[in-house]
Fold this sequence. Notes:
Chain A is built from ten helices and ten strands. By secondary structure, chain A is of the alpha/beta class. Chain A has a domain at about 90-160. In chain A, a hairpin with a 2-residue loop joins β9 and β10 (about 220-225). The longest helix of chain A has 16 residues, at about 175-190. Residues about 245-255 of chain A have low confidence and may be disordered. Chain B has a single domain (about 5-225), classed as MetI-like (MetI-like fold), CATH 1.10.3720. Chain B is flat and about 70 Å long. Residues about 220-225 of chain B have low confidence and may be disordered. Chain A: Its main location: membrane.
Amino acid sequence: MIRLTDIVKRFGDLEVLRRVNVSVREGSVTALIGPSGSGKSTLLRCVNLLEFPEAGELVLGEETVRFTGRPPERETIRRVRRQTGMVFQNFQLFPHRTALGNVMESLVVVLKWPEAQARARALELLEKVGLAHKADAFPAQLSGGQQQRVAIARALASSPRVLLCDEPTSALDPELALEVVEVLAQLAREGSTMMIATHDLRLAASVAHEAVLLEAGEVVESAPARELFTNPKHERTRRFISTLGIDAQLPEARCATP
Amino acid sequence: MPYWLDLMLQSLGPLLWAGLVFTVPLTLLSFALGLTLGFLTALARLYGPRPLVALARFYVWIIRGTPLLVQLFVIFYGLPSVGILLDAFPAALIGFTINVGAYTSEIVRAVIASIPRGQWEASYSIGMSWSQALRRTVLPQAARVAVPPLSNSFISLVKDTSLAAAVTVPELFQAAQRIVATTYEPLIIYIEAALIYLALSSVLSALQDRLERHLARSSGTLEAAA
C-alpha cells in the first residue's frame, strides 16, 4: 500500500499541493492526470522524497513518514528511495555509462551486489524491455524510446515496491512513445505497482486501473480509470478529458481492469 | 658548425637538467596539490556552510587579484620577517600551489554546476547518497568538460614556473640567466630556453588531446557523432 495523506507542498509562496490524498493498492497502476502545473509531478516527487512536503504523511509499505516542515532523517530518505524507482520525462540516463552500466549502477553502488550477479540481473532487465542487444551501447547511441526503456530497467533494478513515472512518454514522438507504453503495459500485467503522471491518454487508458485528476494542487476526481475516462462525475473532469480527445481514442484503447 | 648552434648545443645539457630537476617537478607537484586545493575550495563554495563559502571566496579574490610574482616574494622574502623561513623550492611550491588552487577552483566549480540537476536526481532516485552521486555520476561527467580549461591552467603553469627564478630556484630560466652571465649571448640562450618551454607545452597539448579523445570514446560521443 502506498498512501499519501493531506500532503501540502509549497514552493515559496506558491502552494503546489493542498492537502492531497491519494492511495495506491499494491499491484495496481494509478494515472495522475491534469493540466500543466496541477502538481502531479510534484506529488510523484514527494513519494521518493525528491521533494519534502511541508505537511502530511506518506505510507510506503512498512515505512511511515510524517512531514513536519523539516527534512526527514537521512536514514528514512534512504529507506524510502530503496523502495521506489523513478522514470523521468527526459530519461536522465547516465551518459558516461552503457545501457548495462546504467542498470547495474544501483545494484553495485547502493546494494553492493557482486559485479557478476549485478550484470546477470541487469541483462535480465534489459531483456525484459527488449534491449538486451543494446547492452553495450551508450545512451547517445540509442533512440529516445530505447533510452526510456533503459531508464525503466534502471528504475526496476533494485526491485522497488512502486515505480514512479513522471511523464514517461512526453519527450517522445508517438511512435517511440508506443514502445514505452507497451513496456509499461507489460509491467502492469505482471502486477507491478505504478504511479504515472501523464498527458498521454493512450498510456493512461491502456495501462492504468485507477485515475486521479489533479488541478491547482487539489484532487478533483479519483475513480477507476475506465469510469473516470468514460463517465466522469465532475464537469471539470469532463472538460479536461474532452480536451485530450479521449472519446476518439477509447474504442481502441482498452481500459485495463484490475 | 655555426657559432650559435655550437653555443646552443653546449648549453642544452645544463638547461635540460635544470628543467628536469626543478621546472618539471615544480610544475607537476604544484599542479597536483593545487588541483586538490581547487577541488576542495570548489566544494566548499558550492556546498559548504556559509562561513566556509565566504572563506573560499576571500581566498580566490585575494589570489586572483594580486600578481603571482608578488605572492612569491611575500612568501620567500616577506615571511622570514615573521619567523617563517622557507627554502626556495618549498616557497615556490607553496606559492604556485595556492595560485593554481584559486584558478582551478573556479573551473571545478563551473563544471560541477554545469551538470544538470536531473543527473543528481536520477542518482538519488536509485538510492545513492550525495557523495555517491558526486563520485559516480557528477565528477566523471564534469571531468570531461574540465579537461580543456584545466589543460590551459597546466600549460600556463609550466611557463609561470620561470618566475621561480626570481626567488632563487635554479630552474630552467635561471639556468639560462646564468649561462648568459658568462657567455654574453642573451638572444641565443633565451631563445633556446623559450624553445624548451615550447617543447614542454607541446608535449602537454598532445597529452590533452589524447585524454580528450579517450574520455570522448569512453562515453560513446565519438561514435554517436560519426
